[in-house]
Amino acid sequence: MKTSISTIFSFLFLIQFIVAQDRITGETFATRSVVLGQNGMVATSHPLATQIGLDMLKSGGNAIDAAIAANAALGLMEPTGCGIGGDLFAIVWDGRTKKLYGLNASGRSPQSLSLDYFKKEGMTKIPSHGPLPVSVPGAVDGWFELHGKFGSRPMTEILGPAIDYAEKGFPLTELIAWYIQRTVPFFESKGFPNVEDTYKTQNGGKLPNEGEIYKNPYLANTYRKIAEGGRDAFYKGDIAKIVGKFIKEQGGFLSAKDFAAHKSEWVEPVSINYRGYDVWELPPNGQGIAALQMLQILKGYDFSKIEFGSAEHLHLFTEAKKLAFEDRAKYYADLDFFDVPVEELLSDSYAKERRAMIGEKAGMYNAGQISAGETIYMTVADKEGTMISLIQSNYRGMGSGMAPPKLGFMLQDRGELFSLKPGQANTFEPGKRPFHTIIPAFITKDGKPFMSFGVMGGDFQPMGHTQIVMNLIDFGMNIQEAGDAPRWDHTGGASPMGRLTEDTGLIRTESGIPYSTIRGLMDKGHRMGTARGIYGGYQAILWDAENKVYHGASESRKDGQAAGF
């Protein structure tokens, strides 16, 4: 018995140093130092995509050119998280006008599909896969909107590297190989057409493993059509017709007319001030203002007296999340269809009311009374001071399972996020944008750019944004440490799809959160658990105005890289 106990203590002693990684400086949980550069910075979830963006900057392109080039590469290299079958949102700090711009490039539901259809079919929710959750993919139009307003290089040059990699191939990274080996067989088991041809036939009839070469010549051909023919080649040409015909054959409703009618929207970002820093998000149909609501509540507490990762920290955070997400369920929707009371939701007085509801124990809440899957995130900055915060996704990883023939991509399933309950803010309607989970973020200070950042991961994203902001401002971490710090999330509660709150939910923590915290949360009435791979992935670029240096970060939960010059 003595030997056994001694062995256990020796093992635990060893583990603490493995976790600490023996770093000489900084937080012990950091995976590496911040990346620094004076002339430009690119941070994406794939090293090759980062290098494509960096090459674009070095050859004279600007941040927008580099962002589009990198995003196109990610659609090829990380098909388990994004692609031109999905939507896009971006926040841009323009170095020339010294202003923030917001782009909502999310697509709408089919005009010929109605709420009555689901009622007649006896459906209480929209299916997660197949033709019914497919909405118009907005990413390509988003590229051209960004390019038309800010771009400098021709699209043939911008999409060239992705086309070249799609034709010649590239080695799959560890995480993407893991995802694709599990996702493609799932879709095949459902009997969805063209999945094998799109993802396996072009690669010798098998899915490559980590380090093996992956190609997608169909996507190369689609990208070439877009590069040469512009956005209309996607929304008004053969591609739209192929998609419309295919979806109709599968029993769906998305048509070439829906493609032709699509347009993105430039929107005004919204913000709250958190201890001297202005944190910016996009207004609904996305969920970005949930992060702002959380921060509004949390800034009423003095975190200089609360330890990072403590039970008190996680308790207050979780209760703020619950309150914000109840409002998310009731109010967040397409602003063209519902008058979301954004100003009231973000007001100091409303935050004070909501904060007063938080006690010492885990609580259950309702929305306040107001009058009125996998993703990619990336960010780029250039020598002119332009910074772009861009997020793009198909939802549920690869998307709906609907791969149009010989186009090289899968369509998103964002339509699943509508509610089928009549009379709600997010209830399905024809031509409506669904509630969206993907959100880019930006921070300014004294009217000047400070940081462009984002965190992937479905419902986790507002929680991730809030954790990053607090790590930086409340706990004094640098941008790499802020992303590498252990995370947690909370599940349960009401949702924009019509689910109601039934209990206090579940807090799930990464292994870096100590057991003393878990035990303390249990004492406060919280239920605890763990989960694998739901904590997103983070990239960030910070501008050090004093030294005129960009700081870049890309966390260890993904295969990504930040690089500057």
UniProtKB/TrEMBL annotation:
<keyword id="KW-0808">Transferase</keyword>
<dbReference type="InterPro" id="IPR000101">
    <property type="entry name" value="GGT_peptidase"/>
</dbReference>
<dbReference type="GO" id="GO:0103068">
    <property type="term" value="F:leukotriene C4 gamma-glutamyl transferase activity"/>
</dbReference>
<keyword id="KW-0317">Glutathione biosynthesis</keyword>
<dbReference type="InterPro" id="IPR029055">
    <property type="entry name" value="Ntn_hydrolases_N"/>
</dbReference>
<keyword id="KW-0012">Acyltransferase</keyword>
<dbReference type="InterPro" id="IPR052896">
    <property type="entry name" value="GGT-like_enzyme"/>
</dbReference>
<dbReference type="Pfam" id="PF01019">
    <property type="entry name" value="G_glu_transpept"/>
</dbReference>
<dbReference type="InterPro" id="IPR043137">
    <property type="entry name" value="GGT_ssub_C"/>
</dbReference>
<comment type="subunit">
    <text>This enzyme consists of two polypeptide chains, which are synthesized in precursor form from a single polypeptide.</text>
</comment>
<comment type="pathway">
    <text>Sulfur metabolism; glutathione metabolism.</text>
</comment>
<keyword id="KW-0865">Zymogen</keyword>
<keyword id="KW-0378">Hydrolase</keyword>
<comment type="similarity">
    <text>Belongs to the gamma-glutamyltransferase family.</text>
</comment>
<protein>
    <recommendedName>
        <fullName>Glutathione hydrolase proenzyme</fullName>
        <ecNumber>2.3.2.2</ecNumber>
        <ecNumber>3.4.19.13</ecNumber>
    </recommendedName>
</protein>
